[in-house]
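Hi L.,

You mentioned the student needs an example of a multi-chain input paired with its predicted structure. This one should do, with 309 residues in total across all chains.
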Amino acid sequence: MKAAVLVFPGSNREGDVAQAIELVTGRKPQMVWHGDGDFEKTDLIVVPGGFSYGDYLRCGAMAAQSPVMAEVKKRAAEGVPVLAICNGFQIVTEAGLLPGVLMRNEQLKFVCGDVHLKVETSQSLFTNRYQAGQVIKVPVAHAEGNYFADDDTLKRLEDRGQVAFRYCAPDGTVDGSGNPNGSIRNIAGIFNETKTVMGLMPHPENAIEPMFGGCDGKALFEGLVEALS
Amino acid sequence: MKARVHVTLKNGVLDPQGKAIGHSLNRLGFAEVGDVRQGKFIELELAETDKTKAKARLDEMCRKLLANTVIENYSIELVG
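Structure written out for the whole complex:
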């Protein structure tokens, strides 16, 4: 599996996700600067976390208009899988690749720590190594992760099985106790209609080594390798 | 020509910052303050003299970048 990781001014998790990809594929991904309108064809594009353009105007708003994103939109339309994490999720919603928006956390605080996620489906490139209903533990680190979409959009997401992960309690109960940011319906990650684009606020790339609190994120990358190699 | 753009959250969209500002004002003794909504104010200098054209361009700017119309409304004001 060949992967590209985008780099914007202010990205800061591109190294972490590159490391996760190298761990499961044995090869370094291609790092692509935001000003590059063209880059080598890859099997996967990753939009990493960070604070692109200093979160000016709105998180992800400026990055969504960068030359590299115009190319990503084109490739996503052709079916190239896109994994968008944290700020990457904000960027792809601003770019229109995924519906909805990530607003300021309900309690106005930056949240940093482990959360539990309920895997909603195993029927995707990104989640095929998990079981539907499985609870995984991965970290979050964000101030704007409060997912919001209007009722029609939510209904469409639910009806078409486009919710990938929901925040939950350690026992899998989806309620307010496990929701770190006020996201509507506890939504932590979603797919596009074809399930080739996934955005999520938590950081699976930071849950790949037992030394750092768990490996529950590793299966996401292993699943991608299996599906895309 | 100068333009002023106001971007505000749509009604019904939770505005935790506005809420926090309201609470602080209440705590400072401004008991008359009820609901507070926070927004953005953007001032732009335009190389354009035709007001209709300027407005149409600003509308496009708002939809493409300045506002996220999923959660925000915008209003445009032309000055001078």
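You could point out the following to them. Chain B has a mean pLDDT of 95. The helical segments of chain B are 16-27, 51-66.

Best wishes,
N.
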